[in-house]
Amino acid sequence: MESRWKMRVIAITIGTVMALSIVYSAHLRRRRRKQKRSRSSCYLQADQTKPQQAFKRVLADNSYSPFKHLKLNESENALNSHPYEAEISALLENPQLEFSFLNGSTDSKMSEEYTWIETESQLKELLGVLSKERVFAVDTEQHSLRSFLGFTSLIQISTQKEDYLVDSIALHDSMGVLRTVFADPSICKVFHGADNDVLWLQRDFHIYVVNLFDTAKACEVLSKPQKSLAYLLETYCGVYTNKLLQREDWRQRPLSKEMVQYARMDAHYLLYIANCLIAELQQQDTEISCPDDKFNFVLEASRRSNMICLQLYTKEVEAFPGESAASSLSSRHLNSQGGVSSISCKTQFQDLVRRLCAWRDLMARVHDESLRYVLSDQAIVTLADRAPMTSAEIFSTITQADLSVELSFNSFLLSPSPVVCSHLNDVCSLLQDKIGNFNDLFPMILQKCLGPGGSCPFSVLNYALLVNCNLKVTVASKQNGERSSKQAARKSSRDLFVQKFSCKSPVYHNCRIYANDGRLLCYCDRRKLEWYLLRDLAKLVDENPPAIMLLFEPKGRPEDEDNDFYIQSKKNICVGCGEGNHYLRYRIIPSCYRIHFPEHLKSHRSHDIVLLCVDCHEVAHAAAERYKKQVAAEFGIPLFVSKVVDSKQAQVLSGSSESATNLEEAGVSPLQLRTAAMALLRHGPRMPSKRREELKQIVMSYYGGREITEVDLEMALLVGMSPHERRRLEKKKGLSFKQSILPNVEQENNIGCMETSSIVDASELSALDGSHNTEVKACCRKEDRETDADVGDSSICADSGIDGEISSTKGNANSDEYGVSDTKGVNVVNSEDNCESRSPSDGTVDLYHTKHDETARHKHNSKLSLLGHGPHGKQVVDHLQKEYGDDGIRQFCQRWRQVFVEAVHPRFLPAGWDVMHSGRRDFGEFSVYNPAKKPSATGKD
Ligand code: AMP
Ligand code: MN
Ligand code: ZN
């Protein structure tokens, strides 16, 4: 039966494709004739049905420029901060807790009447009504198919007396009228699941919600079995809603009866439900109140609600248009192919996917359509795979690809879309590789569409695209010029720094991982999803943004610990000030300590790595460096290794029956040794002889007091360096280090005596400390980029010692980020600290942390750089572990979080971030995913 049905579907499909091809050929012939007469071939010239074409003012347009938030007064700082941050923060500290919304039980039944608001005067009347209320309920409906960013198509507002449906399409340019009531802290706004609504209102109308009560958050605090609105409507009001209606086209006017009913219901009952939930929260507080338990249910629900208000809308940032979609489509397809295609096929495929995704992104922006409306994912993959050459082939390839996926999902979409049909020439050129330099594609297509006499309609949504495109090109060429001019480079070194080392694409991708029972486990980036999909350890359950469901049972779920941090959607903004244009990763627990933590305590890195803008980063880093010194003093463990001595000389010394005290006095700090050796090598002959003698003494004390040669000086430069640092130096110096020297020194270093009992000359260290040189920093960081995918993570001035001259030759030698040695070691450090993008690559099936066994750890330690804070970190951690065990380390982490909070006063930390965070998660003893068990599942790749 079923196979016969399948055959019929295939037959129909083939028939349809053939018919379409014929129709299309005719269409093409007709169009060619028409095109000779006029260039305006874009479908939009004839399509006047898109309501957003009437918008006069658009806050979030389709250009690549960042979203600008409301500025209440001009004197406000340049940062894109939350205009009502102060008001919201005040509510967080001092929640307004008189929730006497409804006087007793009011009849919540929905009457027949409601008010439709579509004129500005009606809107102003509504404002009058709302400003007299103490509370009102709100919900919004979106349209997202025929728009690039989506727009709010309806706003439902309910007071105790009346339901209002606000036509936010007709009133798009006037909605700001309601700004004051939404921002009024004395009026409570009740939403259900406000996360999206809050951002949509900012994006479309600069409306910011202050004083929110979110019934979904109340459910969370009360640990309700479900927190959907449908559940609440059923249990509290006995009414049923059909959530399928949320997918309706909310642009249509008039709205159908069912849609009006659905829309009203989403807001109407919220006040009643809020009242019930508040009563329950209050009851919990009186019932479960133990005197020293600080937890207050009402307070917590209010706090979580208002945290939502602090979020800021941002546009997604990509280094290249369509880049993230391209990489995910490519790898998904190539993975499903199981590596059967040749390298050149693969490269061509990836290149085509990249071009098509860039084209789709640009077209969607130009025409204000969603990506899926322009060209489906499956069409892109099929086009790139088959690389059809003629227009007719392209046409039928797209149709086939779209027919082959689930009919229910895309059946209402035209395939190929009108965008493809009217811009088919571009698709042809793309596939035929006619466009030489891919980067020229961008301005070229834009000019063709929107330039003088362009094919597509100009609008408030797309005009900035063209303007910014030109800008982008000129800015880029200017920067090239700057690179050759030292003066200009110095002048704008900070800008360059921001540009180079801040994260280029969003760090958090908000892809989701669900457990096999459908509960959300965490957010992560695409690479992680792909890792699981590739190994058949998960199945894809959602496309945009993508989500997977694990096919195995993970041990240790976020909610096990009452810890909702891991399932908070993370924003790509500075957690300090909310800056969304540039940000770097910042490690709250300095790596010099963290790399020595036992594995099971390293697991919560996503909690302790946050995004910071360059300014906040600087503040945080400075505070951390200060605090390191405090730690050093408190534990009596100096920040730098105080004395080293050449191992051979040490043997000689102890062998020649000299007293032990002599041995103790011998040696020199590795930093001092480096500085001295470097200065002698570079400027020795030109130095005043007194100074030269001083420096020589320093180096000699390393070699047990014997006379030194040029080779000794060069070798002294390598002392204390990890192999990785050495390789870098080597690369920089070219051939100046003889190959034969290296292994020798390396060996010495491993057995070289590392004395830390002696006192560090603190004044000397602090004098060295903090002499930052931006140029050097930028140069160091550039080098880091090559080996370190986790760019911008180490601090701006990871160099905490040594003057500029030396830093410039040594690379980033004493950055504590490089406490671990060779290339492999560096990878390990990165994967530890960068859970989201790296962890799956090491072949473990561990949601939260990577594993590497003890032997690997010991290996790292032996390769520890003596120039950074690594040895200090190791001793501190060993001490904590010995004295206080795991708790000691947890408390140590909490201290660092406290330091961070006090320095930066972060205002945009994800809800759930906590100084006291313990985030313990480990695998079950018997789990196949227990790293100790060497699971067979992980050996599959
Ligand atoms: P709601 O408040 O639940 O009615 O949802 C508000 C808006 O979110 C709707 O108008 C839709 O645009 C969008 N939305 C929510 N859930 C979905 C979904 N599952 N599929 C498509 N759109 C959705
Ligand atoms: Mn709704
Ligand atoms: Zn067009």
Description:
The protein has 941 residues and is α/β, with parallel strands linked by helices. It is 49% helix and 7% strand. The chain has 40 helices and 14 strands. Strands 1-4-3-2-5-6 form a 6-stranded mixed β-sheet, with helices on both faces. Strand 9 and strand 10 form a beta hairpin. The model is unreliable at 32-40, 470-494, 653-664, 735-861 and 920-941 (pLDDT under 50). The chain binds adenosine monophosphate, manganese (II) ion and zinc ion. Adenosine monophosphate (AMP) binds at residues 139, 141-142, 144, 246-247, 250, 266.
* Number of helices, where a helix is a run of at least 4 consecutive DSSP H or I residues: 40
Which structural class should the secondary elements be placed in?
alpha/beta
Q: Percent range for helical residues?
A: 40-55%
Question: What's the assembly state of these chains?
Answer: single chain
Q: Unreliable runs, pLDDT <50, ≥5 residues?
A: 32-40, 470-494, 653-664, 735-861, 920-941
Rg computed from alpha carbons, rounded to a whole number of angstroms: 32 Å
Provide tags for this entry.
941 residues; alpha/beta; six-stranded mixed beta sheet; four-stranded mixed beta sheet; 14 strands; binds adenosine monophosphate; binds manganese (II) ion; binds zinc ion
Secondary-structure topology with pairs:
Layout: H1 2-37, H2 85-93, E1 115-117, H3 120-131, E2 135-143, E3 151-158, E4 163-166, H4 179-183, E5 188-191, H5 195-205, E6 212-214, H6 215-221, H7 229-237, H8 257-268, H9 270-287, H10 297-309, H11 323-337, H12 343-367, H13 371-374, H14 377-386, H15 391-404, H16 407-410, H17 418-422, H18 424-431, H19 441-450, H20 463-484, H21 486-491, H22 493-501, E7 511-514, E8 520-524, H23 526-534, E9 538-543, E10 546-550, E11 584-587, H24 591-594, H25 605-608, E12 609-612, H26 614-635, E13 643-645, H27 647-655, H28 660-665, H29 670-683, H30 689-702, H31 710-718, H32 723-733, H33 741-751, E14 753-755, H34 762-768, H35 774-787, H36 804-810, H37 823-833, H38 835-838, H39 854-862, H40 870-904
Parallel strand pairs: 1-4, 2-5, 5-6, 7-10
Antiparallel strand pairs: 2-3, 3-4, 7-8, 9-10, 11-12, 13-14
Adenosine monophosphate is lined by residues 139, 141-142, 144, 246-247, 250, 266.
